[in-house]
Design brief:
This protein has 280 residues and is an alpha/beta fold. The protein has 9 helices and 11 strands. The strands form 2 sheets. It has a 6-stranded mixed sheet, sandwiched between helices. It is elongated and about 110 Å long. The N and C termini lie far apart (104 Å).
Length: 280
């Protein structure tokens, strides 16, 4: 039996209640229907289909002992299926033994509730899990956006450690310096910095580490893998831990080598002319 309990609101979280006893389902629905939209089923075999449907539940309350497919097997299938892997699941059972609760949690349940149901406690546990789910979804979306921006080929980007190592780099920076990601991760940015530019970069880096500034910009030369000089505009910003120590640093690196060539040629011409004038 599968049933969608009617709800006036359409923006409530959707719960899937699974129990082979209709009386238990209706008791749960009565406890929860004011705050949630409810779908109920008495068959464990239907859970994967319902959980993977367009109206995917925000949370599943799953009875442990069912005659067709038991709760642990349903849970295993949910966790093995990518579209349903992240749905919070609360196991419900009259079995209060430590071993059974441990087994359920170890196999991927987010919580374990012992019958008889305590309505206030159950509501609180559901609220906490749904709140955690929202936070985790926001973090995943943020990570996806960050990774998408990080890999944009508009500029070289890097995440570096307080020990000057490369934690991560994008493809643009690899092309700019001639190294693979694996090669750069085995090096430090100091190793690739032109010797004449290392002191000023190091001085600014030490100011960040000391907490005097959170970031800096400068024009800096890197040494390409083939030995040629790559002139860049470097912008660095740190991310600090709660104790204000540096967790990691973000670097944005623009290759301005071609832009600098006319300036260098003009400077050389001016220097040559001044030397010729002095020789007269």
């Amino acid at each position: 039996m599968t049933e969608m309990m009617p709800s006036v609101a359409t923006d409530k979280p959707l719960l899937l209640l699974v129990d082979d006893q209709p009386a238990n389902l209706h008791l749960l629905a009565k406890i929860l229907r004011d705050d949630y939209d409810i779908t109920i089923t008495t068959r464990g075999a239907e859970v994967l289909e319902l959980a993977g449907s367009e109206l995917q539940p925000d949370l599943i309350l799953l009875d442990l002992m069912m005659p067709d497919v038991n709760g642990l097997e349903v849970l295993r299938r949910l966790r093995a299926n990518p579209p349903t892997r992240e749905i919070p699941v609360i196991l419900i059972s009259a079995d209060a033994t430590e071993d059974t609760q441990y087994t359920g949690l170890e196999q991927g349940a987010d919580d374990y509730v012992v019958k008889p149901i305590q309505p206030l406690v159950l509501r609180a546990r559901i609220r906490n899990l749904l709140r955690r789910k929202l936070v985790e979804e926001a973090l995943r979306e943020s990570e996806t956006r960050f990774r998408s921006d990080f890999e944009l080929p508009l500029a070289g980007r890097a995440i570096t450690s307080p020990n000057t190592g490369w934690i991560d780099v994008n493809a643009k920076l690899c092309d700019m310096l001639g190294y693979t990601k694996a090669e750069l991760r085995r090096m430090t940015w100091a190793e690739l910095t032109h010797p004449d530019d290392l002191a000023i970069d190091w001085a600014q880096f030490q100011r960040v580490m000391a907490g005097e500034i959170d970031g800096y910009t400068l024009e800096k030369r890197f040494i390409h893998k083939d030995g040629r000089i790559v002139v860049t505009e470097l912008a660095v910003q740190c991310l600090r831990s709660p104790d204000h120590s540096v967790n990691y640093l973000m670097a944005l690196i623009q290759d301005i080598t071609e832009r600098k060539r006319p300036e260098e040629a003009l400077a050389l011409a001016k220097e040559t002319a001044e030397a010729a004038n002095r020789a007269k």
